[in-house]
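Posted in: Structural Biology > Protein-Ligand Complexes

Title: Requesting predicted complex, 3-methyl-2-oxobutanoic acid in pocket

I'd be grateful if someone could produce the 3D structure tokens for the following input. Sequence and ligand are given below.
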Amino acid sequence: AASPYGTLPPASPMASRKPISLPRLLEMRARNEKITMITAYDATFAAVADAAGIDSILVGDSLGMVVYGMENTLAVSLDTMIAHTQAVMRGSTHAAVLLDMPFSSYQESPQQAYRNGARALAESGAQGLKLEGGAELVDTVEFLVARGLPVMPHIGLMPQRVNEMGGFKAQGREEDAAKKWISIAQRFENAGAFSVLMEGTVEPVASAVANALKVPLIGIGASPACDGQVLVTEDILGLFPDFTPRFAKRYAEIGKLISVAAGQYAADVRLGAFPTPEHCFGVRKQ
Ligand code: KIV
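-- Reply #1 --
Done. Output follows.
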């Protein structure tokens, strides 16, 4: 099918042009097909990711850092998440779009999570929600799923807990970590989560969790045993020089390309080499 970025490749042998559904992600897990997920925060990036055949787009609250220049994700508001998810929905037709619930929009009670989560899904059109948390979040997940809100809990390294963790540190090094995270992830699965996301957790713990679940475990800095992988787009494109986590593989150096292009443009303007007549509007002859 036509796309301004080229022909859309199939995401998998069964894929069609309809948006990938959440049950489809479960089917992929059952068939051992890896799920590809990437972050996007606007229509342009969403369209490019879609054209590349990415299965799912996460509108992450990481936008606080990579788009808004914040030190961490804590100040991102629900309104901001909804606005960016609406933009992503306008740009994508193929990927399953998920919205990240920001700090303080769901932790207070299952009812608060329902009110804000339902509003976020209704106003953005996203298919599912991501919420960070451990055992304390199980009741909330059950409450949301029972009321028709699809949820993907985010475990392991939780950026919304950066202060409590004392920085963005790999998790799962303590004794019994595998047992603890397997138990939490399975409780989420039993509560009806359509998937679980695990971030920044030591490999043996993450692979043990992946093997213990029937729903897909999406990893970021976790394990190749995860059923899918997610990365922050700016990290893999070389667009976020402030901090690149060890687990983010660089696939391009777009930041350097933009810098060269902007520098050439500035030099042309200063030298009077731009604009030239081809860039100017003439007066129409009567
Ligand atoms: O906010 C985000 O982009 C995320 C990913 C890092 C998983 O939570």
